[in-house]
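Archive entry. Fields below.
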Amino acid sequence: MAQPVFPIALCALLLLSACSPPPKISRQTHPLPAGVDIARSEIGRSGGVFIDSSPGEPSTFNPLVSEDATSGGFIGLFLDSLVHNNAVTQEVEPGLAARWDIAPDNRTFTFHLRPGVLWSDGHPFSADDVVFTFQAIYDPRFPNRAAFDLSVDGQKFKVEKIDDLTVRLTTPQIYAPFLETVGGVGLLPKHELEPAFRDGTLLKSWNVSVAQKEPQRLLATGAFRLRSYQPAERIVFEANPHYWRADAKGVRLPYVDFLVTKLVKDANASTLAFATGQTDAEGLSPDNVAWIDRYASRYGFSVFNRGPSPNTGFIWFNQNPGHDTAGKPFVTPYKLAWFTDRRFRQAISHGIDRQGLVRGVLFGRGQPLWGPETPANKKWYNPNVTQYPYNPARSRALLAEAGFQIGPDQKLHDRQGNLVEFTLNSNQENQLRVNMATAFKENMRDLGITVNLSFLDFGTLVGKIQDSYDYEAGMLGLTGGGDPAGGISVFSSKGRLHQWYPNQKTPATPWEARIDQLMSDQLHTLDYPTRKKYFDEVQKIMSDETPYIYLVTANAYVGLKDRWKNIRIPPLGSLVWNLDELWTPLLTP
Amino acid sequence: MAADLLRSLLRRPAGMISACLLLLLYGAAILAPFLSPTIPSAQDLSRTYHPPTALVWQNGHLSVRLYRLVDPSTATYEPLPDQAAPLRWFSHGPAYKFFWLIPSTRHLFTVSSPATIYLLGSDATGRDVFTRLLYGAGISLSIGLIGVALTSFLGLTIGGLAGYLGGWPDTLAMRLTEFLMAVPGLYLLLALRAALSSRFPSDATFLLIVVILSALGWAGTARVVRGLVLSLRERPFILAANVIGQRPWTILFRHLLPNTFSYLIVAATLSVPGYILGEAALSFLGLGIQEPSSSWGLMLGQAQDIKIFMLNFWWLLTPGLAIILTVIAFNLLGDALRDAVDPRFRLPGK
Amino acid sequence: MIPFILRRLTTLVPMLLAVTLLVFILMSLAPGDFLTPVKAQRDINPALIAELQKSFGLDRPWYQQYALWLGNVLHLDFGYSWTYKVPVAQLIAQRAPATILLSITSLLLAWTLAIPLAVLAAARPGGWIDRLTSATAYFALAIPEFFLALLAVWMAARTGWFPIGGLTSLDHDFLSPAAQFLDIAHHLILPTLVLGLGGVAGTLRVLRANVLDVLQAEYITAARAKGLSEKVVLFRHVLRNALNPLLSTIGYAFAGLLSGSLLVENVMNYPGLGRLVYEAFIREDQFVVLGSVVVACSLLIVGNLLSDLALAWSDPRVRYGR
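PREDICTED_STRUCTURE:
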């Protein structure tokens, strides 16, 4: 009967071991490269461990395979690109290319690489790596996402090595988001991956198994290199001893020794880890800010408001006039008549109490949304779109104008006497969306409209929207932000995500034809004011015609431990933009 | 026989108490629309995450305290001093249908607008948690009963036939049960739910879950019934029935199966918790009952949300406690029934 | 005995075939597939989706996919995970140790708590220990595991006494071996308690009944008559005989290894197989699901076999029958 003593002794020992000293590491000192980039930020002190958490596991460390944001984020830490898209300023900045020239034809870009940059194994980085990367991306043996991003109408870019430090890229036509796209391409080490490229196993290299067993093979040009990966537990990155940036005193960046990411199962667990002081940074949703503040002083963190998030939420009606193989129309014809009537959609929009949603569901931390871009996308957001403030009287007037009337049963009927009733489909995984849908149902009841809610698995929902089209109304969200080019599949009538009526052969309405024209025009000029003018009009048309009835956009927040200095928090994207410049005077957490 | 069983059951305190408790729970579930002050879908976006309203005695009436939203950004409410609204008994409120048939607007208690009563607080869209708990009881509790009824029916029929007929039907039935018992249940549940969900409208999820749970659950019952029938088959009264030339079906349904009933009642009572817990687990994973319906499992699943976790812990406790109470009551009742049915199980010293 | 084992093991093959086929059909009936979420991303080219579909074999009818998989399994290749791009066997082997560790600790907990309590309870039926333990057992058996897990997470979050989820601390790599051991132990406490509680209650009830049975036996009366102290009678003679049937629980624990802790692992953020399997189901990562079904099913059959063997070994009255 000696067993019970064991756990007690264990607990006692644990309390002792809890105060373990922080890890000591000695930085290898390599000379700075000739093309070193000097950071303009405040001068800090080396050392420290930055801890964050990720709700989701990386599925790979190979940029050619990565399809998800989680993997992409980790890859971005160690693989650098020619240029950077600065998320704070939304401008393109030098990366591994110190500068670039654009030829007068607006199609030829010459990149001048930083001299003296080394991979984390000490091998020099050169134009060969750039050419190799594009070769790998364009190779049909390795189907990957970047191959499509880096082509215009199916035509590839031309990539030429001029000398060891100069590369020339030529686009087949003028391609507006060229620099932004190139900014997303992590450059691969030719000397490490060429064998795999030759024998056709490139997509299998740098998988999670390799990361776990031979992390040093994942060569880095970025601020960090992989130190260890423990599935479902954590990923540890360490400072890349050959990183090409330094501070004004010539101290090599990054300041922090280690970047530890705790892998947790979902966003809840991630937020909980931060709220209990385990991690240094966390993206927070508005409803969580409501309670997390009370732990701020206990664990020494602050919550920063990033302003509106780039995420949009919207409701739309299925306007697809087609029918299935059995000849049955996707949408009952009399309902299709409502859905394609702009006044009906506008009436619905006026009937939604967005302020109430913001106040109730988002704790007042958000704002109504009227168009496809949120104010987060500073560079492209159009504030002058048509707004539909909560106004049931206006809704009723619009409905009456369109021939709807309230029957003796206090319910709305159309001109033919059909009861106005539809089913709204949404996915059940998102609690905030579920709350919005139930609130929408109540709003519509005030107008005499019966809304049935159907919450489906995401897979089922996408199947309905994109394959079988047998639904009446849907509610989803899209992550906006970034370049308008990313929205082509949504706005253009040929688009796959043009959800109210996707994959149209010819535009169904004049305004859709106009949007198609604008989206195509903006893609083929490099001039920002012109592009902005085109995209502003797209946003305006979207709000006038309301194929998507936009709901609200929540503010985004970042919680960050107070001990970190040099913080630059971008309005969208990663929590901290300048991880390499981050430093702390307090080395122990 | 049933009367004897009931009498001997009620003589045991545990059996008595648990039977009463279950009556109370099922009564509450059936009368949910009447007992709750509102309907489960009624929202109030200006009163989200409302704390439970305190009840006070004021001016000779049981009254509910009024609250003011101090800070919408953190959902902080504070009670208004000396302000309360009296409860109105048997008053009119939101319309509902009793047993899905009889329309009514009468509720046991309501408060007059703009005051609201949230005995257990409100949720993310200002719906009354107490109301949802009561309505949820209907789903959570009936799943147990319907499921057990289905399982018992399947088990009795298949097991009885297998045992009585013998030969290839027996072999077939037993291979099938072995198969079902060797399949990792949770996996099959996950796969079945994924495969079937899109083929049914949301409202039918409830039935779907019952059917899935029963389809996986009948194997055990069938095997035991078969065993019982096999042993009964050799008893003199069955042999006698055979001798006087009664038809096989008559023998099976008149003589054999009724003799397994006492076992079945005990087994059924003891297996109800399995269904309640099964529904709770499925809904908890988001694979069961769906909004805007409510069930205890769904409410627990929503309580996983970290915000509710840290802000409103009572939300989490109430459906959990309800499940625990129900399961304990069924287990106690089952044990008491078993003691009553089969005194050999009675423990010495008691 | 050998023919008995062989006979039982040969049932494994048709069983595995039937179960995997069933799961495969169900998965192909389910709406959408692994690529559905990819399709919903706004900047992905349809041509790439088509390429991926082809490379995953998702463009073929389900029976062809199943036949292909079966063919590969004959060569002991269980396919690879579409999510992680590594072989399924490797993935399962990577996550299994954590789950096995948790099973062992919770089984140990169940035994170390239940054995003494059951003996004490049965020694004086109706006494306060008996009443208390049986009341607690009723309660413990009624709490849904996931609810208990939620409570544990909440407790850990509020008090900070225990880590929330995981098996190791963030600084685990930098700790000394002894500290690493303690670190893991610290992380195991809560999941073990949550998963073990039901086991404690179950074992307690079975064991108490067994002890009571044995107490009626004549040789116990004889032992008492010899004048042995009650303690010696209880722990030396009664317990030894009452424990035998419990041996079989090891086999059952083995059988439930994979599905037993799925919910708890998911709620408590424990890095075991349960999380992997659940995620695979949700994402419809076909080969991981099939692989885990094969493992779970084999464990179930082998585990039941082991408990039957243990039972036969401990009780000569049980013979290897059909």
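CURATOR_NOTE: Chain A is about 30% helix and 20% strand.
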